Fold this protein.
Amino acid sequence: MSAIVDAPVTGRSRIGVYWVLTLEAPEIAARAEPGQFVTIGTEPVGLLRRPFSIYRVEGERVSIAFDAVGPATRWLASCPVGAELSVVGPLGRGFDLSGQGDAIVVGGGYGTAALVFIAERLRATGSPRAVHAIAGARTADRLFLDHELGMRFASLTVTTDDGSAGRAGVVTDVLPGLVASSGAEIVYACGPNRMLDAVARTCATEGVRANLAFEEFMACGIGVCWTCVRAVKTPEGIRNLRVCTEGPVFDGAALPDGAAAAPEAAVGGAAG
Amino acid sequence: MSALEVSLAGIGLRSPVLTASGCFGSGREVARFGSLDHLGAVVCKTVTPNPRQGIDPPRGAETASGMLNAIGLQNPGVDAFRAKDLPWLAERGTPAIASVGGHSVEDYVTCVERLRGAGLVAIELNLSCPNLEDRGFMFALDPARAAEVTSVAVAAADVPILVKLSPDVTDLVAVASAVAEAGAPALSLVNTTLGMAIDVDTRMPKLSTTTGGLSGPAIKPIALRCVWQVHQALPHVPIVGMGGIRTGEDAIEFVLAGATAIAVGTANFVDPRVTAHVAEGIARYLDAHGIESLDAIRGATKQW
């Protein structure tokens, strides 16, 4: 079940260049799973809701992390503690945490936030699984390194494109070595879609399963508008599945090699 | 009789509030957020004779007070829709209106025939589909083509047909008149209007098809004008009015312009409970103004 609630902002802080908002949303907190998302109404600045991965759940509170890059996210970043936001969630299908083996999480930019929830959930359920983390970004200030990040994971490797923090390079430079040394059975990843595609390719080469949380434009977030689709391999062939409903987490093995679903004639109609 | 009950081309509806096709799925996803009992009917997403995967993304973009979409009629096909979606609505006692589309007159007839005996209250023809037998122009752009598909669909159907028209024509009354003369018992006005947006950094159109349908509050004045014009010319043809409706007051505007029922579209994306609020808002308006039913104010826009 999902809920639509008016949730007061109870916390507002920054990590690197990013913003973290904490919301009092008991109905959503009680049901949220790692990899799921919420949508937040942006009525003062726009029409449509915006989707945000869930970063942490603490009691009746849900936190999100985001980059203030457009009118909606800039407005959201300006919402003070006490402001009420319209929140729908939890939405989508999250990460598959059913395995028993060790795991690696790979986060790009504020995508790392959604992976913190995995570590916290596994710890809360007393899981013996060791979880190693790779956090990457273009530059040091674009890393999402909350101060407890190192403590949440069995190991933490940081990469930046320009070498301003951690190792110079991208997450997939260090991923094969960590797969080999950790013996992890699955890689969970969240970040820019191009990074996710690279992680999927690396995991295929290394023979390890990948579970990837994608981001797409979505008008509704609840499965009715069909704007947020991604081409995914299914038993029936390649199909355009909804990121908001069948995703946002898809298995790396289900991603087609650069191909889209059987395309229709590209007529820009008003038919729907 | 409840003040909200209306009769649309002989179809008794428990509420004038419908859902605009493509904005509510077949109800299942939205029912997670609450009952659908306030709806006159769910107008389902358009189906075609065979399953379609739609177009490549990006399929949507927000614009000022609205959004653009181009989905390419992704749908599971009329047979799967009938087998999976309609029973779900029937189990809940939610009246269903199918929406059918296609690229040829034959496609529409096929859908309508395969929906015979399906327990629908009506079928809506989505005439904003490109007609591949007429240079890819939408059926709704041409009075003769629109009338042709209407007459064969009406003949093939065992329930009333609603014909959904596009606002993107020079003379909507001409298209509406042709469709009414061809036997359409009612009209749905309006579908999205064609629009476009460009990302100035990449210089790419924001939709993979370059152009797509604009919906939301941005088009409400256009939609209202369309309903009013058609109602003025064809006062006896019932109209389902839609385009940017978010509140009970929005709905009342469409009724004053001549609509018998109304449909809520893009607003469902923003608030999955919005149709309930619209129904409550209509009831509140009637109550506050001492009006017994919507029939009393239909087309009752005053003149300057």
